[in-house]
Specification:
The complex is a heterotrimer of chains A (235), B (370) and C (331). By secondary structure, chain A is an alpha/beta fold. Chain A has a single domain, classed as 3-Layer(aba) Sandwich (Rossmann fold). A 6-stranded mixed beta sheet of chain A has the order 6-7-8-3-9-10, sandwiched between helices. A 4-stranded antiparallel beta sheet of chain A has the order 2-1-4-5, with helices on one face. In chain A, helix 4 crosses helix 5. Chain B has 370 residues and is an alpha/beta fold. About 3% of the residues of chain B have low confidence. Chain C has 331 residues and is mostly helical. Chain C has a single domain, classed as ABC transporter involved in vitamin B12 uptake, BtuC (Orthogonal Bundle). Chain C is built from 14 helices and no strands. The chains are: A alpha/beta (235), B alpha/beta (370), C mainly alpha (331). At the A-C interface, helix 2 and strand 6 of A face helix 9 and helix 10 of C.
């Protein structure tokens, strides 16, 4: 789905390189690395909003830089680490904004769009919240709402930037479980950057680790790493 | 023996005569009080070798400042008076009316400082400015003290606003007296002109000043009498819009008095106040749409005026081209009109009362150009 | 997208506008009755003073009130969403400073080129146009909207300084003229100018239809908007252009009018409780007109005792309201 071949990731200087990694649909990949190793830069390159220093990110056999703005929005969605809510914006309206890449010039929602919104709400059990204002709900609920919006965007790739950073333990687990669920059920390629090593190991996700010494990104299958090994490689 | 007695008697008589003469002279001087007739903010009093000048506040007509000119070098200066040395030889004149008054006394050459040369009309003063003999000081609030000190002027005359001139005491110590002037606040046109007597006393031309004033007073009153004999009272309005407000002369103001003396029907002549009255444009239009004459619209050209405010076109006075202004000669008007009120009155009567067939030349006012 | 209750509010506002308009037409010291009103519109008698007042004074004033109130409010809404800041207003980019500077030149500089032929209206329009171009150029170069905001504020400070210098060099009557311009007025516009103002106003408003969708997304912030496919630079250019046209137009004919563009969009969001910009725009059109018309009616009513310039009244009412917004946000 995503081919990363002969790529150098960085802003002005190369932070790390990728020899050959394939990211497939149906999997959750946890992106792990030290601070400053280049996680954020990598995510920006994935979304096509930052040029990689060398090589191109290829999505479904097309370079990400050749995508039109709306096509890119239909292929990759992004969930930030914190959503503070917006005044006067209801949950259901917020989630509906995920359909923007598909609606007409006036942004009108078709019945199909509305059905997709409802589906995302159902999938994440957010029915109770849908008529509430995004300002009124809790942080954890808001994070799920943000994920629901990304789902509504119907993209094959969903990227989450430290989605559990501001959540308590039970919410963190919930988010990871939900993402694994979505990846499998809806056949999505999901990339989650995280500092929570235990959570990633517990959740049995694939691991994308930025090797500190080799300055390279390596893909590890589930169950092949222990926490100690992981720490020694990345930190 | 009889010769000695005769001498004594003669001597005694001479003594008595001279004493009486002295008494008569001093009592004459005692009687000669304030010689100002029309001006309400000025008093000039001759007294025991001094000329006392009282400047009064236009708000309550109480004496605000007292100046004294010594006529005899050993005369006693009363307390509370600022000494002015006379005759004054160099003057900073911050208002153009001051220059106008000095020029009537043929003494504008005494001006060594002005506020802004672009407001000056007097050719002599302008010439001196160009040669560098007259210094430009700036607007009243922003004049650098050093400029005044450097000019070494005897006197600085400024238009009063109720507060003293900045650094007044310092300047006095350094030799320049700040003389406050309220001519511009005088309500009666003759009262305004009468301030020429102050200048006369300052520069040692008292007699000429009195002569001039009496002459114009006579002329003014004569014109007023002629106008009063007219059988018609033409209607007029005055002023213009500033933003959303129309300012017209109030009933007791300078212009209103001129309008009265020219025998006219001015709509706001019974309003109170010596300044302006405010109205909305709608009110002015409603009151004056059919009024015959419009004076002082603030423009010298009809087309410019209508470009600035096209709604003026609804006035009958505009449609009939009976709009008059002094704006052609702005500087000249401000310099001279205060000291030639008889010419202003003459202009008004000439324009407003064609039936009187005065055939005088128009000094300041002209019909608006197209 | 919007609650039923809020829809009802919109209908109510829609009915209020013509009612308040009629009130506005008939308020003023000269009392005009309905027959004058009717004849002034359909059977104009050029010699009837009341009818003249009605046509030449009341109608332009009403129309300008509606145009200025709604135009500034819409511009304010655009700026508030673009900068994600409820305290933004139509003057935030400094376009208004351009008008102010050129009007200051035309009134106070004493340079013959600027006075006479140029007139206040043309000066204001040219000033707005030039500064609008400057801001557009910057918005093309600059990446984040915060930088653009800073540039706008700096432009404003720069022109203020220039204007101060001009003021210190001017004589009392010039100073007064400029000060009066700065107080804002709905009464300077004439009937003949209304059609062209309407044309540009309607152009500006219709253009807003095309930015409804990007505005709805911009609510999420610039980064999220980009991720959803919005072409930021292009949208920014359009938003700034619309704001420049509306603001420049209104400032040229009325002078600067404070607080309307800031307070009204916030009022509307509070009333309608939505972020759906289609509805917010309609709300701004209605509430903006009502707000300014009500202020002007108050001015008329108080005219006999005291003349209050329109800027003063909008600030008197608007400032406490803005304080309320700030407090509410902190809560």
């Amino acid at each position: 789905m995503i081919t990363l071949q002969d790529i150098e990731i960085g802003y002005k200087t190369t932070l790390f390189s990728i020899e050959n990694i394939q990211l497939k649909k149906g999997y959750v990949y946890a992106l792990i690395g030290a601070n400053g190793a280049g996680k954020t830069t990598f995510l920006q390159s994935l979304t096509g909003f930052n040029q990689s220093i060398k090589g191109e990110v290829v999505v479904s056999n097309k370079s990400i830089y050749t995508f039109s703005r709306f096509d890119k929005a239909k292929t990759i969605s992004f969930v930030a680490s914190k959503f503070d809510g917006i005044d006067y914006l209801k949950v259901i309206d917020y989630i509906s904004l995920g359909r923007i890449p598909y609606t007409n010039a006036l942004g009108r929602l078709t019945d199909y769009d509305k059905e997709l919104v409802n589906e995302s709400i159902r999938l994440l059990n957010l029915e109770v919240l849908s008529e509430k204002y995004t300002i009124e709900i809790s942080d954890g609920e808001r994070q799920l709402v943000a994920i629901a919006r990304a789902l509504t965007q119907q993209t094959e790739v969903i990227i989450l930037d430290e989605p559990t950073a501001f959540l308590d333990y039970s919410n963190r687990k919930k988010v990871m479980e939900t993402m694994k669920d979505i990846a499998i059920k809806l056949n999505k390629c999901i990339i989650i950057s995280s500092h929570d090593l235990e959570l990633c190991l517990e959740s049995n996700t694939q691991l994308l680790v930025i090797h500190k010494e080799r300055k390279a990104m390596i893909l590890f299958d589930e169950n092949t790493l222990t926490k100690e090994k992981l720490i020694s490689i990345g930190f | 023996m009889s010769f000695k007695r005769n001498i004594l008697i003669l001597f005694g008589l001479l003594l008595v005569v001279s004493c009486t003469h002295e008494n008569v002279k001093s009592s004459k001087q005692d009687i000669k009080k304030n010689e100002i007739q029309y001006a309400e903010n000025l008093e000039i009093i001759h007294e025991r070798g001094n000329v006392l000048i009282h400047i009064k506040s236009p708000e309550n007509h109480q004496i605000e400042k007292k100046y004294c000119i010594q006529n005899k070098t050993n005369s006693i200066i009363p307390s509370g008076y600022i000494l002015l040395k006379s005759p004054v030889r160099s003057i900073i004149a911050l208002s153009s009316t001051h220059i106008g008054m000095l020029s009537k006394l043929k003494s504008e050459n005494l001006v060594t400082g002005i506020s802004n040369h672009s407001y000056v009309h007097n050719p002599l003063v302008l010439n001196k400015y160009r040669k560098g003999e007259v210094v430009e000081m700036g607007e009243e609030g922003t004049i650098p003290v050093e400029s005044i000190v450097a000019s070494k002027a005897d006197v600085l005359i400024y238009s009063g606003f109720g507060k003293s001139f900045p650094h007044e005491d310092q300047l006095e110590r350094l030799g320049t007296i700040c003389l406050v002037n309220y001519d511009w606040r005088e309500v009666h046109p003759l009262g305004n002109a009468e301030w020429i007597k102050l200048f006369g006393v300052l520069i040692g031309k008292e007699k000429q000043a009195n002569l001039y004033f009496n002459k114009i007073k006579k002329e003014y009153l004569k014109l007023k009498k002629i106008a009063s004999k007219s059988k018609i009272k033409p209607t007029l309005f005055s002023g213009n819009l500033v933003g959303d407000i129309w300012y017209s002369p109030a009933g007791e103001s300078y212009n209103s008095i001129l309008f009265k003396d020219a025998k006219t029907d001015y709509m706001y002549s019974s309003s109170k106040g010596t300044g302006s009255v405010e109205h909305s444009f709608e009110e002015i239009l409603k009151d004056n749409i059919k009024t015959e004459f419009w004076f002082n619209p603030g423009f010298s050209s009809m087309s410019q005026m209508l470009k600035a405010q096209s709604k003026y076109v609804h006035f009958e006075s505009v449609k009939n081209n009976k709009v008059y202004s002094y704006n052609f000669s702005g500087n000249e008007f401000w310099e001279k009109s205060a000291i030639e009120p008889q010419h202003v009155l003459s202009d008004l009567i000439q324009i407003l009362h064609p039936e009187l067939k005065l055939k005088n030349k128009l000094h300041f006012y002209r019909k608006l150009n197209k | 997208m919007i609650q039923t209750k809020s829809k009802l509010v919109l209908y109510l506002l829609l009915i209020l506008v013509p009612i308040v308009s009629v009130f506005h037409l008939f308020s003023g010291e000269i009392s005009i009755d309905f027959s004058d009103f009717y004849r002034a519109l359909f059977d104009f008698d050029k010699t009837n003073t009341n009818q003249i007042i009605f046509r030449e004074f009341r109608i332009p004033r009403l129309l300008m009130g509606i145009i200025a109130g709604s135009g500034l409010s819409i511009a304010g809404l655009l700026m508030q969403t673009m900068f994600n800041n409820p305290l933004a207003g139509p003057y935030i980019l400094g376009i208004n400073s351009g008008s102010s500077l050129f009007v200051a030149f035309s009134i106070m500089s004493g340079i013959p080129f600027f006075i006479s032929d140029f007139g206040t209206i043309s000066s204001a329009l040219i000033g707005a146009f030039i500064f609008g171009l400057i801001i557009l150029a910057f918005s093309y170069i600059v990446k984040s909207h915060v930088s653009l905001l800073l540039i706008g504020i700096m432009l404003g400070s720069f022109t203020s300084a220039f204007v101060s210098i001009l003021q210190s060099m001017s004589n009392p009557s010039e100073l007064k003229l400029f000060t009066m311009w700065g107080m804002g007025s709905l009464q300077q516009v004439t009937l003949t100018q209304i059609p062209i103002i309407l044309v540009f106003f309607i152009l500006g408003i219709i253009s807003c239809i095309f930015v409804i969708k990007p505005l709805n997304v911009l609510v999420l912030g610039e980064n999220q908007a980009m991720m959803l496919g919005i072409h930021l630079k292009y949208v920014r250019l359009i938003l700034i252009s619309i704001t420049a046209i509306l603001t420049g137009l209104i400032t040229a004919f009325c002078g600067p009018i404070a607080f309307v563009g800031l307070a009204v969009p916030n009022m509307v969001k509070l009333l309608l409780k939505t972020q759906s910009h289609g509805f917010l725009m309609v709300g701004c059109l209605l509430v903006g007109s009502l707000f300014l018309l009500v202020c002007d009616i108050l001015i008329q009513l108080l005219e006999t005792s005291v003349h209050i310039p329109i800027n003063a009244l909008t600030s008197l009412i608007g400032a406490p309201f803005v304080i309320l917004i700030v407090l509410k946000r902190l809560a």
